[in-house]
Amino acid sequence: MKALFIRQPGEAIVDTTPEPTSAGNHLLLRVRLVGLCGSDLNSFRGKNPLVSFPRIPGHEVAATIVEGSNRNPELASGVNVTMSPYTSCGQCASCRRGRPNACQFNQTLGVQRDGAMTEFIIMPEEKLYPSKLSLKELCMVEPLSVGFHAAARGRVTKDDIVPSLGLVASASESLPRATSGAHAPLPSILTTASLPWRARPGPPRRSIQEATRFASSCASSPMGLAPM
User: Fold this and answer.
1) Is 227 inside any structural domain?
2) What would the pLDDT profile of 6-53 be if each residue is shown by its tens digit?
3) Which residue among 31, 34, 72, 194 is the one 20 to 30 A from 83 at the CA level?
4) Angle (CA) 129 146 2, round 5°
5) pLDDT tens digits for 55-98?
C-alpha cells in the first residue's frame, strides 16, 4: 500500500509499505480523511524532538472499519470511526490514577510511531469511536477534544473572559491522489488554519458544532482523546 513518509526534515515522499493485518482486538481500518496538525508541520520541519525519521504522519483521522469486531456490534464492518491516537500502558502513575490519556509511555500516531497518512491502519477496539458524523466532522473530533479538555481543565465558565489566540477555522484541501494498480488513493487532508471563519471556505458551522459535541463526549470518556 502507499503511504506518505517524512524521510528527513524538509523531505516528504509517497512510497510503499506493507499492508497491516488485523489481529486480536486490533481492527483493520481504511483511512478516509486525515487532519494536518501543526505538530505534523513541525515534524516536517524537523522541530519536533519526539519524532524520529522516517515517519508516516497523521493523527487526526476519519476511517472506515474493514474487518469488524467479534465483541462489539457497534464496531461492524463499514462503520465510520475516529480514534484516540495515543497509547496507554496501564501501569504508570497516570494510568493507575485513571488518566490513561497522560500515560508516561504514550506513543502518539505520527510522532513516536507511524501515523495514518496511508491507506490502511490497525487500531485497538478501545481506541475507536464510531459515529454517524460526516468524515470531515469525524476528522475534527481529535483537535476539538483537545480544546474542550483545555477549557475543562481551566474551569472556564460562561461568565469568564478569555483570549482567543488564533481562531481556528477548517478548510479542506486535497493531497495529490497517488494510485497504483488495485490500491485506493491516499486519504485527503483536512487542514486547520488560524484565520477568521468567514475568510476561508470549509464545512458549515453546523459541522463544527456537531463535531464539538461529539468531541466533548469523547474527551469525557475513560480513554479520553485529549493528550494532557
Assistant:
1) no
2) 999 999 999 999 999 998 899 999 999 999 888 899 999 999 999 999
3) 194
4) 60
5) 999 999 999 999 999 999 999 999 999 999 999 999 999 999 99
Per-residue pLDDT at 38: 86
CATH value at residue 199 = 3.90.180.10
State how many domains the chain has.
1
Q: Is residue 228 part of a domain?
A: no
Which domain does 188 fall in, by range?
2-219
Give the chain's end-to-end CA distance (angstroms, integer).
Answer: 33
Would you say residue 121 lies in a domain? yes
The DSSP H or E segment spanning 169 is strand 169-173
Q: pLDDT digits over 154-171, tens only?
A: 888 878 887 766 544 333
H runs (alpha helix) in 28-181: 38-45, 93-96, 135-153
Q: What share of the chain is helix, strand, coil (3-state, %, to 5)?
A: 25, 25, 50
